[in-house]
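Check out one such.
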Amino acid sequence: MRIAGYTSLLCACLLLLLTETVAQVQLSQSSDTVYFTSDRKKITMPFRLVHNLVIIPVQINNSQPLNFILDSGVRNTLITQLYFSDSLDLKEANRIKIKGLGQGHSLEAIHSTGNSMRMRGIQGDHHTVYVLLEDIFNLSLRMGMPVHGIIGYDIFKNFIVKINYSTETLTLYRPDQKVKKKKRAEEYPLIIEDAKPYLHATVKQHNGDSLNVKLIVDTGASNSLSLYLPSDERLKLPPKVMHAYLGRGLGGDINGKIGRLPSFRLGKYEMENLTASYPDAEAVKLALNVAGRHGNIGSDILKRFTVIFDYPNQRISLIPNRRFKEPFYFNMAGFEVSTPLPGANFYIISNVVEDSPAKMVGVQPGDQLLHINGRNCNELKLSEVLHILDSKPGRKLRLRLKREEEIIDVDFVLQSRI
């Protein structure tokens, strides 16, 4: 079956949180084999870090290199979007319906087995691929570059995987190799259940309680931490929270609240005053069926370490990097930015939050962002724009917007409501 590129059918945008919801789809186990194409003991390749997410090039059958998010929370390879210039030959394809986290309907997808997968020095045979027939995630709009899909377990299960967030390099080791670790490295048991990696951590809440929680280690979520309140009656909302649109899953929108935790501890490593999201129970009801799961650790925590995933030996190692002591910020402007022309410095306001600083001064979805603090957005990368929105409280923003043919100037101050 040959699939040509198609355009987005839905226009709902993801926020910075790209949830692990794809991982919750009840898909079949993959029987593929992934291996080195040479006798090398390890292969190192660069990746792009966007929104805290690891982007790697992957070829499916005879395709051109496609951009995939490396997601430890997803079992099967999922293609979310193809462009007019893309084409894909799929083997043994048939249509199915799938459903994941979120509030909405099931989706149609193409299920294909017997495919090949290639990365630098890596070959995969008998590869299972799912192609969404609706691009509900709009990853490219949120990432500012073409993003075609998500890949995870098929890589992690076959190799020892080292993600160096500082150098933006990914190293794959043969599973029988011993990986050299720095003295500061701390090793933890990694629990693999239903193709997903879990570890235990401790959260300290505002009431003084310290709880041991079981969390998915999720490189495909760009937030810091998600906690599912219905999973344990001892989990409580922080005293100050804000309502938020947390993202979009296969089943629809995911809403909830964002607050701050006094501290979060992984072994000897403790992070203080970090942001945490609390999805609404309805949005995560499928995840609540997983015994003992309390939420997930996202890449805003993971990027503060060099992370070594060792699925074959069920362990994970963390080595703190220069980001370890950075404060945890979040978007305090009250709006999100999308890029209708991925790869171009062209930015549109989306999803303006009620009662936010931006909303109060009249910013509207659909406004084009022309200037920020006097800087022409044509000269700013998406990462630079987002860094400004994620700045510390008290920073003044001067925006020049275009609404249809009208030029609008607005000023406001970033405020933390949590």
Observations:
- The CA atoms of residues 21 and 101 lie 5 Å apart.
- Residues 335-414 form a domain with the Pdz3 Domain fold (CATH 2.30.42.10).
- The chain has five helices and 31 strands.
